[in-house]
Amino acid sequence: MVQIWAGTDIGKTHHHCVVLNAEGERLLSRRVLNDEPELLALLADVLALDEDVVWAVDVADGMAALWISVLLNHGQHLVYIPGLAVNRASAGYRGMGKTDAKDATVIADQARMRRDLTVLRSDDEQAIELRVLTSRRADLNADRTRRINRLRGQLTSIFPALERVLDLTNVGPVILLTGYQTPAALRRTGGKRLVTWLRNRSVRSPEALTEAALEAAESQHTAVPGEKITAQVIHTLAKEVMSLNEQISEIDKLIAVRLRDHELAEVISSMPGIGPLLAAEFLAATAGDMSRYGTADRLASLAGVAPVPRDSGNISGNLHRPRRYHRGLQRVFYTSALISIRSCDDSRRFYERKRAEGKRHTQAVLALARRRVNVLWALIRDGQCYQPNRSRPLEWCIDGHSVISF
């Protein structure tokens, strides 16, 4: 039986740990350096108080990774309470001030009173690698988006006609901007030389791109002040976008290799609409361990595709999206649902049925995403790949109930 509860307020360089007993009395309060010898000393001191201890943290990764690894490697029971929940719970405790010691006390006390907190477990190496790679890819993609937006802004300031006809999410237009940024430069080059220049750089459909660029150049003969230096900035930004494209391509190859080695890769990728990247993001978020969530309903709630009630008084049936959910998981299920509408007959029929019931596009896609949670849950549970609906709806049994796939 648990005798003491240890809450840790996580910080970048230092953590603060507070230990409470069953009556809520403070047994220990200490600020420790985020360094292994200091953390091991804290662990030993807390275990000296009592070996039956529940540890709680308010951060589950990043700067808490070393402390979490130390606790899990020593077989400790560790739970996670989100920082937002700690902040809201603090309002119910005496005192208006905020200190690390008070936050650690709230964390420990919440762990003492609550039985619904998430238990943290060790993930396998493959899931951790996929989490690192997908996070890195998300960072690179965000950097690319920022640079493309800056590129659009700079190009609009000197050559708006060209900005309108270029889709800078494609490689070809970005390559064009590494060599030509002004109307005069495009007109001097001419169509034949520009087509050859683009073809030598392996641009798809160089003729169509050349025609659009020259048409834009012929529509503008005014040189805007600052055009020369702006053109240099556009050249630099275009080069940076090209470099980020190459880095993202390399990350995608690494993700595909790591995903191929995972035991659930074939099962998850068999779901319509889930490719290597979405499958990797799903495994990064869940580690493929469905026992952590208990039921498909809990997984759907975590993914933000299951509505929650907000009833009060005479108002009932008031359903809304949950305020707390895993945005990465929601992206997996919502994006794959969108893709599956175009690539899977079962998904398209389900979507069209929901639309016929009067649901808006977003509502119908969310309903499809919710149904796909049940199907993917059953596939992982049974270790089976998805089989398209042939003559009748595919059925899976979840918690003793028959669940139609789509």
From TrEMBL:
InterPro entries: Transp_IS110-like_N, Transpos_IS110, Transposase_20. It comes from the Bacteria. Coiled coil: none annotated. Pfam families: DEDD_Tnp_IS110 (PF01548), Transposase_20 (PF02371). Residues 6-160 form the Transposase IS110-like N-terminal domain. Residues 266-351 form the Transposase IS116/IS110/IS902 C-terminal domain. PANTHER family: PUTATIVE TRANSPOSASE FOR IS117-RELATED, TRANSPOSASE FOR INSERTION SEQUENCE ELEMENT IS1111A. NCBIfam families: transpos_IS110. This is IS110 family transposase.
